[in-house]
Amino acid sequence: MSVHPTVVIVGAGFGGLRAARALRHAPIKVVLIDQHNYHLFQPLLYQVATAGLSPADISHPVRAILRGQANLHFRMAQVTGVDLAARRLQLSTGELGYDYLILAVGGQTNFFGLESVARNGFGMKTLEEATQIRNQLLQMFELAAQEPDADLRRALLTFVVVGGGPTGVECAGAIAELIRLVLVKDYASNVNAAVNLKEARVVLLEATDKLLAAMPESLQEATAETLWRKHVEVRFGAAVADFDGRKVTLKGGEVIPARTLIWAAGVRAAALLDGVGLKQGRLGRVVVQPTLQTPDHPEVFVVGDAAYLEHDGQPLPMVAPVAMQQAEVAAHNILNLLAQRPLRTFEYHDPGSLATIGRNAAVAQLGRWHLRGFPAWVMWLVVHILQLIGFRNRLLVLINWAWDYIFYDRGVRIISGK
Amino acid sequence: MSVHPTVVIVGAGFGGLRAARALRHAPIKVVLIDQHNYHLFQPLLYQVATAGLSPADISHPVRAILRGQANLHFRMAQVTGVDLAARRLQLSTGELGYDYLILAVGGQTNFFGLESVARNGFGMKTLEEATQIRNQLLQMFELAAQEPDADLRRALLTFVVVGGGPTGVECAGAIAELIRLVLVKDYASNVNAAVNLKEARVVLLEATDKLLAAMPESLQEATAETLWRKHVEVRFGAAVADFDGRKVTLKGGEVIPARTLIWAAGVRAAALLDGVGLKQGRLGRVVVQPTLQTPDHPEVFVVGDAAYLEHDGQPLPMVAPVAMQQAEVAAHNILNLLAQRPLRTFEYHDPGSLATIGRNAAVAQLGRWHLRGFPAWVMWLVVHILQLIGFRNRLLVLINWAWDYIFYDRGVRIISGK
Fold this sequence. Notes:
The structure is a homodimer.
Chain A (H helix, E strand, L loop, with lengths): L5 E5 L3 H9 L6 E6 L3 E3 L4 H5 L9 E3 H4 L6 E5 L2 E5 L4 E4 L2 E4 L2 E4 L3 E3 L5 H6 L6 H18 L5 H7 L1 E5 L3 H21 L14 E5 L11 H13 L2 E4 L4 E4 L3 E4 L4 E3 L2 E4 L3 E3 L16 E2 L12 E3 L4 E2 L1 E2 L2 E2 L4 H19 L14 E6 L2 E6 L2 E4 H15 L3 H17 L11
Parallel strand pairs in A: 1-2, 1-9, 2-5, 9-20, 11-12, 11-17, 12-13, 19-21
Antiparallel strand pairs in A: 3-4, 6-7, 7-8, 10-18, 14-15, 15-16, 22-23, 24-25, 25-26
Helix pairs in contact in A: 1-9, 5-6
């Protein structure tokens, strides 16, 4: 053990950053590890996927965020192993010992064993995946404009989004608007254009009979209504069995010819946790006590999507507010352990939830308040702008949004890569 | 031949776009082909490479630029072959016949047969290459911060730029400022930071004894002075023989341990032209007559970097003004041929040249006017902002620059990809 105890935090998401901040005045050494050099503002990932924002608009360098924190040491590295007994991490760049460990490694896409979907579909958890989706969407239109075969053209222009949670709803709404408000102008004036954007379809597949299951029923209905009005085909009771890159096959046998499938139907805890030797609950989440310690290793804390803890008999949702509130408690419990004070137990304070369905349309549930339509959308805007890390990002995102709103545009319609 | 004659333009760079615009009122079908769906504002590529701008800030969808042009048809495709006899193009997406052809395919990096440099170094002609350079620069700092071996650390932090033309000068200046004004803050406050940014080196290698060879001598001197003041090691008479990814070997035998080599020492015409059967001059450029027609195929025009034409006994430089002026003449000569009017011959009007060396520093030559320092830098800013395609891009770039200028920041410090 060094002079100051070492607290290692793995993951610079909402939980990891909050934990690092909470430890800023303590006489300890804090090492924050992430495989990326930036914090990603995940709630706006679908805007990168639909050409509304640039990757840099929703990501901010970790070093810039934590610049003033003198006890913090950031390392960009992948964690390749955890030796709980020796209290050491194996990193892609070497080894690292810890006295206390906070695992805030987040979640990853869960394809529930559907290998063809994992291979041919697109997840939407990382900046790279969002950029790939943007490239794919735009490329399908470019190919369709040169495709004489009408059936092939329709398959190129069919976009299937799987999962009626917030990500799926936001993504389907944004794709529909991208097509009907923006691309329709790009493909309108050219002579001999083979493509008529009326051929384009956006299909939202949901296995159950409701969208945004965590929302009150009235808002669920409003969400479906709004999506239909934006020409999204909302299909309930539709579970995907297979996607070969050419057609989506549903469990009932129905076939939808489509080249693009975006999978927003499942998340699990990061696979990194699987080999560690910590007891895991549903979706690979590590079981923690109300103090956020793991039962057998009181020096190891797990927070956020990576942690399994129940609230009113239900596992806590994998959302940013849970991660941030847990990170706060975990960090303070480490300080409590060091000071030999009693530990705090975690209790979740649900701030409510928000989802946007596009231009002027959103749903919001805040305690007993239920909002929809324009007021919910304005609230969504304000909340997300305020939360975006970094004043510049906020300003640029706001300008982008204002421009898109006024001119029915999406500025990042470039196909990158080869 | 269709009812309207078909003019095919290959390349949506400065030349191709200008040609398409010049044909907008003609009763012809114009087909513009590019392998990307965007026009790239190449003069600012080095700003993407040095984390100052996002890719979307300097690229704009071709369809959006040419939206109002009713006789234009855009196809995103790669040209895989040209059948001059049959007047047909082979594309990655099919075939296409033409009555008149304008090849505005631009240039590509020329490694002059240095295979190890081509394999391990970075070119800087495409958005992908610029993004790769950004990722590389930032990653070297992250690795250096975790590298205990001092020699390895210095190699990680040595950035070699090859070529003293505008691209090399701008790039070296921008990297030096990125390190000394921005990254120095990111790596300052962390405890136990292994890395001291004073170890970082930026080396500019130039094989001859002058920078910006096209500029007047007084401005060449001023450029070298400014680079030195920004801590760029300017090395004259230094030609690269080999780069294995670990060390740069010069022709004289000198070895510079470095992980990063940016090659800005040569450009040639796009390799696509090599197999076509058109007579090529120096650097693979296709020999054209003053009408910009190829000698054996009067229906085929070549403009810009792709064209070989002499002016005062010298080949015309590979710069945007040449491409735009030639495109104008080529387009009008097609209209002249259709109307059986005499053809125009090309004469170059040199608008002067500009290069920026960083904050408050640039050099400009406009006819007999020679500017340097702050006035040249302001002129550079104004010219580039005005030229940037698309009002939104201009606005966002201006905000980015203003922010960076005031706060000594670079907003796009994210390492993307895997």
